[in-house]
Amino acid sequence: MKVIYPGSFDPVTKGHIDIIKRAQKIFGEVIVAVLVNNSKNSLFTIEERVELLQDALKDIENIEVDTFSGLLINYTESKGCNRIIRGLRAISDYEVELQMALANRSLNGNVETVFLASSPEFNFLSSSIVKEIASFGGDVSDLVSSSVNEALKEKYKNIK
Ligand code: COA
Known about the structure:
By secondary structure, the chain is of the alpha/beta class. It contains six helices and five strands, in the order βαβαβαβαβαα.
C-alpha cells in the first residue's frame, strides 16, 4: 500500500526519517510530500529540501520524494492514496493532529490518517530546534543526516 507522509521538512531530521522508515516497513511504499507555498519562512528552498530528503532516504527502498501545493487531501487523491501518515511526538501534537485529521476526513471520508508514535529519542526534535542549535554553532550531527549537517553549516557560516 502507498501512503503519504507530508510536511515542510525545512530541513528533514532524524525524527522524520524514523517515521518514514517505520511507515515503509508497515505499508510498503511511502511518498514523502514537501509542501510548497508554506506560510512559514523557510531556510532551505524547495529544491534543497527535496535534494536533502532524497539523500537522507537513498538507502531505503520504495520511497518517493515529491512536492505538493494546495490541499493535502487533493494531492493524496491525485496520487491514488487513501492513507496519510503523521508522527506524534508529545501530547501537544495530538490536538493539532486530531484537528487536521478530522478536517481531512470531512473533505474525503475515504482517506484515513494513521499516527505513528515518535521514537523517544526524537520526541523533542523539530526542524526549528535543529536550525536554532545550528545557527549558534551547536552540534546537530546526532539529529540530522550528514548532508543536512553540512548544508546547515553552509547556511550559517557567515553568521557569528
Ligand atoms: N520528528 C521530528 N520533527 C518532527 C516530526 C518528527 N517525527 N514531526 C513533525 N516534526 C516537526 C517538523 O519538522 C516541524 O518543525 P518546524 O515547525 O520547526 O518546522 C513541526 O514539527 C511541525 O511539523 P508538521 O506538523 O509536520 O508541520 P509541517 O509544517 O511540517 O507540515 C502539513 C504540515 C504540510 C502536513 C500541513 O500544513 C498541510 O497538510 N498543509 C496543506 C494544506 C492543507 O491541506 N490544509 C488543511 C489540512 S487541515
